[in-house]
Each structure stands twice: as C-alpha cells, then as structure tokens.
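Feature request, filed as a ticket because there's no other form

It would be nice if the structure record came with a short human-readable summary line next to the tokens. Right now we just get the raw output. Example of a typical job, pasted below so the devs can see what we mean:
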Amino acid sequence: MAFDKSKFIPRFVQESREHLKFLSDELQAHQADPTAWTVSGDCVRAAHTVKGSAKILGLKPISEVAQHLEEVLRAIQKQTVSPDTAVHELLLSTSVLLTAFISQIELGEEIETDITGVMEDLESALRGEYKPLIEENPAEEVPPAPPLSSKEEPAAPPVEAAPPPVPEKKGGFDKSKFVARFVEEARDHINTLNEGLINLETQPGNLEIIDQIFRVAHTLKGASKILGLKPVSLLAHKVEDVLDSLRNDRVRFNKPLCDLLLKSVDLISEFVEQIAAGQSPDTDIRPLIEALESAARGEPVTALKPSAQSVSGEEDETGLVRKASDLPQTLFKTATSDTVRISTNKLDDTVKLMGEIVSNHIRMKQNVLDIDELSKLFNKHLDQLAPLAKSEQGPLNGRSSEIVEMARAIHTRLKTLSSHTRDVMSFQSLVTDDLREKVLRMRMLPLSTVLDGFPRLVRDIADACGKQVRLDIQGAGTELDKKIIERIGDPLLHMVRNSIDHGIEPPEVRRETGKEETGTVRVSAEYEGGHVLIRIEDDGTGISVEKIREKAVMKKIYDEETVEGIPDAEIINLIFRPGFSTSTLITEVSGRGVGMDVVRDNIVKHLKGSVQIESKKDKGTTFFIRLPLTLAVMRLMLVRVGSISVAIPLNSIREIIRVPAESLIEVVNRHAVSLRDQIIPVAELKTLLDLEETDARQDIARPGNNLVILLVAMGTEMLGLIVDEIETEEDMEIKPLPDHMKDNELVSGITLSGRNEIVLVLQAPRLFTLARTAQEEKFRHRTSVATKEFRILVVDDSVSTRHVEKNILEAQGYQVELAADGVEGFEKAMEKPYDLILTDIEMPRMDGFTLTEALRQEKTYRHTPIIILSSRGSEEDKLRGMQVGANGYLVKGAFDPQQLTDTINKLMQ
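Raw output as currently delivered:
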C-alpha cells in the first residue's frame, strides 16, 4: 500500500543538507592540493545516505546523481581514480547541484532539470577520462593591451572570422531556478570577504582569517562557475589565487594589495547586483585580472591600467566580456524574486491583519466593560423595583411580582453572559498575544543585515579623512522589524561618519595627547524593555559644549544670560537643529549643519524612535538611538487632554506622578518639578498642542490644582507633561497618517480606541522640541534684514572666475564688488565695510591666506564671514584656512553654485 511520503520530506531535507555540507567542507579543505586528498569513509557514507534516502522517497534525480557521486568517491578512496583539480571541481559542483535540488524539494517544486550531462561527467571521471568541456584560458594566453602614447588612438581590432560555436553540453539544465539563491548566498560571501580583508589589515599574518576567506572565494568561484557566470567565477578564481599565495608566504599582505582585493570584491558585488536585477555583467575586467595575476606572482601592486578598448559588451578572445544577448535570458528570469518561502508583500498583509485582530480585541474588551456597566445599572433599577412587588395597588396593577421575577432572570442571564464573555476574552488575550508575537517575529531581521557592510565603509571613510580607525561591532544579532532595518542603515552610517570625521583625531594629534594612534568607533545593540538601544561611541575629542553655547548666542537662539542656565544635555541637542554646526570651517563635505537634523527626523518621524547624545571633552561622544521592535503594534498610553484623547508610546514614559500645583518651581523662566534631587522641566500638553485659546488658558501653578504629570524620557533628558486624565494602557495597531497629515512632525500615526474613536499617536521626541521652542521664543531677538542689503567682496585674480561668482551672487540679490588680488582686496575692505569676503588663495602680490589673516587683525572684520574658494583641496590647505580665520573653505574642482549660495546664506544668518 502506498504511503504518504510528504511527512518525511522535512527530515530528509535537513539530513541531506548536513551530509552535503560535510562533503562540501571536505572538498574545500583540500582545494589547494586535491591530489593529496584521502577520501574518508564519512564522505562516502554522506553520498550513500543521500542516495538511499532519496531512492526511498522516489526522488529519482537526486538518488541517481548521488549514486554516481558515491561511485566516484569510492574509486578515489580505492585509488583507482586520481582526484586532480578537474575531478575535484566536478565533485564540488555536483555537491552544489544536489544542494540546489534539495532546496527545490523543500519548496515543494518538481525537479525538472535534465541531469544527463552531469551523469556523463561523473561516469567519465569514474573511467579516469574526465576533462572539462570548456576550460578557462590560462593567464599567459590573455594578450595584454598594447601601451598607448598620449597622442595615439587605439587601433581598431582586426576583423577575424568568428570562432566555431562551442557545442552545447548534452543534458544542460535550467540554471535560472538557482540564480536567486546564488545571489542571496553570494551577498553573504561578499560580506565575509570584505570583513576578512579589513581584519587582515590589522592582523596580516593571521592564517585563520586567510584560510577562511580563501574558502569563501573558492565557494563563490564554484557556485558561479556551475551557473555559467564567467566574470564572477574568473574574478573569484584570481582572488583565490592571490589568497593561496598569501597562505604559502609567496606574497606579503600590505595596503596596496588589500586595496586591489577590495576593488575586486567590489566588482564581484557589482556583478552580483546586476545579475539580481536581471542584467548581464558587461564590464571589462582584463586590467583587474592582470593586476591580480601579477599580485599572485609576488610582483608589487601598481595602479590599474585603463582598458585600451571601450567596453562594447562584445566577447574578446579571452572570454572576459560578453554581450548581454549572448547569455541565456532565462538565466535571470527568477533572480528578482522577492521571496524566500512567501512573498514579503503577503507577510506585510499578514502583519496588517494581525493589527486588525489586536484592534478588534481591544473593542471586544470595551464591549465586556459595557456589559458589566449594563449589569450594574440593571441591578440598581431592580433594587428600586423590588419594593413595588409588595404593593398590589401600585402602578403595576398586581403584576409587580411577575415583572420582578422576569427582571431577576434577565439579570442572572446577563451576569452569566458577562462571566462567559470574560472567560472567552481571557483565552483570546493569550491567543492574540501569542499570534502577535509570532507574526511580528516572522518579519524580524538581525541588525547584521545593515552592519555587515560597515567595516569596509569605515575603512574607506577613515582613509579619506587621513585617520586610523578601528570599528567594533557588538550585538549584531539583535533583531528589529524589517521595515525599521530597511530605513536605519543611512542614519547609522551618517553618525558613524560624523564620529570619524569630527570625533576621531588624526594620528599625530592623538599621539601628542597620549592616546593610541588608532581611534575606536563602537556600534552596539541590545534589547531594553520594549525597544532596542543602539549605541554609537567614539573615543575622540568629544563635543565642545562651550562652542555650542557661543553658536546659540550668535544665531540668537538664546541670549547670553539664558544660555548659561540651560543644562549641558539640552544644549548638546541643539546640534539637531537644521543648519546648526559648531565647525569652524565649512567644506564641501562637512561643517554645514546639514545632516543631523535629517538623521533625527528619520529616526523620530519615520521609525518612531529617539536619539540622544552624551559627550565628554577629550573622552569621546556617544549617540543613543532607541527604536521600537516593530512599527505595526505598539503599547500606548491614552490620556485625556481637554476634550480629546491622545496616545503616547509607553516606552517613552518613565513614570506617572501626581503633585499639588504648589510644588512646581520656576527655573530659567520655565515651570519645573523637583524629584529625587533632579530638576525636571514641566509643560502643559494642552498648551503644546495649542488646544485652548490664549485668553482661556489658566496658570497651571494656581494653588489648589492637583496635577497629573507624565515623566517622558529621551535618553537622559526628562520632560514632565501635564495631562487632564489617564485613560488606559493597551497594545494597539498604529495606522499610517492620511496624505493631508503626512508632514505633521508631532503625530506619528493614528489608532482606534475601544469606543471606535480616532486617537492621534504623538511623537515623544517632538514634544521635547516643542517645549524647547516655547522657551526659545521668549528670548529670540532676530532682526529681519533683506538679502539684497548685504554687500560681498569677491577677490580673485582670474577675470572669468570673478565674473562667474559675481553673476551667481547677484542672481541671489547680493551687492557684489570685485578685486583682482589680495592687496586690492585689502585696500577696498579698508575703504568701506563688507558683510562677507569671498577670496581665492593663489594670487599675485598677496595670497588669500595672508589677506584673511590681515583682515582678522582689523577690528571691523574680526567677526565678518570669510570664505576661501580655491582649486587647492588638500587637508593641509583647509587646516591653514581655519588657522588664519576663514569660516568656509570650498574647492573649485567640486564647485557647485548652490553649494556656494547655501554656505553664504548660512553664514549670513
């Protein structure tokens, strides 16, 4: 009698994967010298077990291929077949093919691949006659591109007869089914290669790292080769050769070699992404191949030679470049699949439905409460009706006893219904909580999804800044909702870049201050209550609180008296204001105050999180980013403010206190409360939300008021919010804002209460901003000056440059005057005052550095903005510009008119 085989498939898949992984690891471990490989009995048993299990389950393609694999392994074990490189590659590719078949079985797909070609190859190997049908051209057969003089044009290649077509291997199989899985695995391999190479820079002799990335390169080569992805397999093969030379001490690892290997990995990554997008790699990789071959021979690494041929996509005699049309189009058809087992869109729909279940559950709980209230009300009226039963002459005309009995029966039934409903709701609460947790976990991804690429990026940023930086990542396995993972990468990278660019000092400065020359940036993640805490720490210079105070006064955010009374933690948060920067020098990449406000908005507005900073002078800076585990369902506290209910995420609320109004104190013109030796500013939520007319507002500190205060936290900063009433605390579905409210920074979403009322979900960090703004408005003394009233002096020895800059600035409404060199510029500046000076560096008679230094000696120009615009872009020149007193430094090579006007507008504020 036939039996149901489906129930045995999961166990078969798991077992077979373990056997094939063991076999693949054995093959990779002996890649360097396959002829010395002694096949163990475990290897033969692995193939034998896969064959036997597949045969029992009727999986004929798997059982037949595994049988032939087993026979070849036995022949090598008995030494009747020599395991040369070609046979070794065949065994490895067969193992990869079997693994792919296993994946198809797991997904419930039929194996339709024609295995004839693979079987014939294995039979040839068994007879000792196997040779690959198509071999890679050896390095010596790749003709080098002829050197070109600067005046010569590359000669057109001679027209040759097309080579005879390569006969298609009999029994070729449809590779398209495996490309999506290849892309997924290749991305993991690329991350491992990047991480390994970065680690090798600090541990160049670590054989364990070299062996690891050698195996990864070998696996990448084998997987791409079996799928016919020749550019990927060739590059991976050449990288493998270099790593093999490293393993055998034929090559010494250094920075130029690391750069070459990283460039190769970058190109492999580019090819993989092109394949994932359904495109064919068409980049000429010959210069890179030549450089890798040269490096593998131990020759010094030099800059790559540009290709003498344009990349037309045509295949040359080396076979390194192909037309997209030459590759089988079916190869890429499934590469863009957005599925693992189920579509991510379907998973999102499931999460939304789960949110609806949670919302309905809340409404059902409210219904149960309503039934209880109805029962109490019914009982109250029943008690009033009972005395009438004793009087037959009452208004009920003798039927009172009957009516009372009916009422008591209804009341009993109502109580029973209420009790049963409560029992059902209790059980449903358990099921709903379990469902919510499991569904949300289905959409969780580890933070390593984002952080795996950081070591390479940190290396590149540090190189660009001329600094030495060590990256330490902890807690990369911490999981967050997929929607958060997709958005958090850029904000985290921006903060890491800030830590390197503005925090970590150059090696010589660190050495002078007694620090290790290599700075450390640490990214760590951990669970904290109902959210995840991510820390980004550096051991650099820290943030100067005094500079922020000076800048706040200069920009007239606070006056001098007020700014001194504000705590350091609150002052530091001013760097999140748009356009706020303490950098003394503005360049094309930093100091503009653009970025941290965007980072905060991304984290707060889109991810419903918070960001906070702690900094110690000369010790370093730490960013604290708190994110919810998911954006779909959140635990909220509903509070009554005036005539409406609003919701605040519970993970932002540290404590609820009730205090008499008389206990409020006033600090720096703000209401505050003293709690456990800490002064906490207090604001009325009703006022922040602008829910009352000004003349209707009452002083919250009026004697006799009893205040309900929510203590809301953002990092180490606390704010007390006065509300009218606490209503409830629930896990609630957060729905997105309608289109007309998308730009509202205060509201992160909406939810439905148990009574089907629409409730706004507030952004706690935005409430902090509103509270600060309310104070800032009291001390702001801005003057409104029309842009056209500003007068700018442009100093440059180039006539064309002077007039280009003049036209740009006049189009913005500025009055512009010109000077041909530093001496003329200084003389004009002494004749009348200018609001801003824009100067070149290299000029006759007096250069820009000297002009800037001379102007700073004059009282009139001690605080006037001065911008240097020069073709010289070295770090030394930028540092010199800062030392002589320039406020901005822009490079002509990267000149952008908008960048110039933005910088001027910022300095003119």
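Something like this underneath would help us a lot:
Confidence is low (pLDDT under 50) at residues 134-173, 306-340, 693-697, 778-788.
The chain has six domains: 6-126, 174-305+321-332, 344-442, 468-628, 633-779, 787-908.
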